[in-house]
Amino acid sequence: MASKTFDKDTMLDLTVNMVPLVIILFFVVGFSVFNPFGFESLASGLQYGILIGSFVLLAALTYLSGKAIAGSEKTDTVYLPGQATVPGATPLHGEHEDAAAEIEESADAEAVESAEGTA
Amino acid sequence: MEVNGQLVLTVLMGLFLIAVAAWLARVENWRSYTPLAGAGAVGSTEQYVSEEKPSGVIRWLTTVDHKDIGILYGAYGLIAFVVGGLMVVVMRLELADPASTLISNTFYNSLLTSHGITMLFLFGTPIIAAFSNYFIPLLIGADDMAFPRINAIAFWLLPPAALLIWAGFFPIPDVIPAQTAWTMYTPLSAGVGSGNQMNAGVDLMLLGLHLSGVSATMGAINFIATIFTERNEKVSWANLDIFSWTILTQSGLILFAFPLLGSAILMLLLDRNFDTMFFAVEGGAILWQHLFWFFGHPEVYILVLPPMGLVSLILPRFAGRRLFGFKFVVYSTLAIGVLSFGVWAHHMFATGMDPRLRASFMAVSMAIAIPSAVKTFNWITTMWNGKIRLTTPMLFCIGFVSNFIIGGVTGVFLASIPVDLVLHDTYYVVGHFHYIVMGAIAFAGFAGLYYWFPIYTGRMYQTTLGKWHFWLSMVGTNLTFFVMVLLGYGGMPRRYATYLPEFATLHQIATVGALILFVAQVIFVWNFVQSWLEGPKVEDGDPWDLADDDLVTSEWHWFDRKLQTAIADGGEEEAELATDGGERIDDSQSTSDVSSDGGDPVAETDATSDE
């Protein structure tokens, strides 16, 4: 299920957060290899703590938000953002044909059909 | 004798408050009160707007309707904007001359402090809350906020907060305004030394600031609960609009940042009044800076993320296409939210802290530039080959992008330690962050005010004045703040009422720019007030013709429905029609039957077109 959620499109969307993660990682490695100020347990601990803490929190939030958004794309009808409650709004089926096929078999099929009917 | 006098005043004030409470309890039947939309006016003779809603002043004092509270926030924010703006006009006039001529140096310091706090806490946060209160429930299909009464309480904490923050300017004996700057660095703000900052004016300001923080935190909890639990079942995470995403992220930041500010402020108050010595010991000054900036840097994003959301929502509507890379904008918003808590000490590079620690804060500051830049590219790409309509809200959106690029790029340089050590505490920093707070945040606020003007007033603003407002604001902003960047390169330090004559020319240009900005805002206020009272009534639920490009969002649909179900003045079917919240009419009728409000019909091109 997890690999289905994080498909190619979702991973592409998440690249936007990969870039700052890579930048932080670059500095973690950089400070380890080139460290003109030496190692001191408290200062160095804080130095890496700031970087690694930011890295972990960003990675975690990226994962959770990606899972929530991509997951709901798979299970719910997708509209243009802000249009879900507008009568007659066209669902974005072209981008999620596979998901739509699954939805039709699910309990939400009726809701999808009514939305299509108004389009 | 003096103590007795104070006691009498306190008792009188207490009796007055009890009388107000008793009066409110008498005039309103609280049990019957439920929030519904409707209109009412000050001085109206009718007791109720609708069956469940009082009219006149009582409506505004007792409302828990998210739209009414949004309007209250907006009015409050704009009044604070006027106060903060007038403060800085006086400061810029003083700076037209190198010597101290117009006002004293201490009064300049007072204005500087209050301008910063007013603009950030009394204008910035509330004007965002105005949009979010009014439109988030409409955008996500909720009936109201999750906690309507907490919503009202959060707003009503703000007027006393403003009075406390400005108390030093009132004619109260022995109370003078705070002169600590908005950063309130100790030991100055702790009242240490031979200065005058032990004055009660600083205590009142701190209490006011704390109150505004409590208000913001209550609002944030409400928005998180609303967006998580009150969404229409069709509004999944994948369907959530970008403005709601930015408000959700902002609320998360507020939840983690503002309580820390509150704690630090209480510690400072204890230091000032009970000699607790939190910030008096060795390292106390640095402790304050760490505590303050752990709040202060997220505060920057608390202020800028929702305006980014506004631009992301509005700009595509006038580019005739969807926002390019919508999910890039969502994920980068969340990334900014997280990373904003790992950059606070880049405000403290010059304090002499450990270089290893400094290097890490520089690294995260570099990283946070990426999600911000990503959004910029998304906005530009959305406009690329788009069907651009240069309406006033669109102009402000484009102005936002332009100013944000300059403000952002100057900020990236400051994130670099060697550059920061040269430019720290100069006008370069002032120029940089004013490009963001005025050039970007305020511009997005104006874009929102113009874009949704038809919804919350039912009328259209004067388009020519709107464009004058934009162009004068754009010229004024760039003239004032680009010159500040140059002043910083020249070594002009911040926060001084006087300066060396060599800086006179650039300072005078900045003052001219500020006066242009002042004229622009006068035009805005005139246009805003006059159009609200007398502007042509909007009879089309889609005044921006968003349906042509299939870009109508929920709040416009709500507005359309409201227009069509409104009670017509003198109409025959008056008794049959329900106000908003009444029986729903079927779609076929709603698309063809536009109700009249009895006013003069206005040609659509005049009333609604802004091209």
TrEMBL record, chain A:
Compositionally biased intervals (Acidic residues): 100-113
Region: Disordered, residue numbers: 90-119
Origin superkingdom: Archaea
Pfam families membership: DUF6684
Keywords: Membrane, Transmembrane, Transmembrane helix
Transmembrane segments: 12-34, 46-64
Entries under InterPro entries matching the protein: DUF6684
UniProt-recorded name of the protein: Cox cluster protein
Source organism: Haloferax marinum
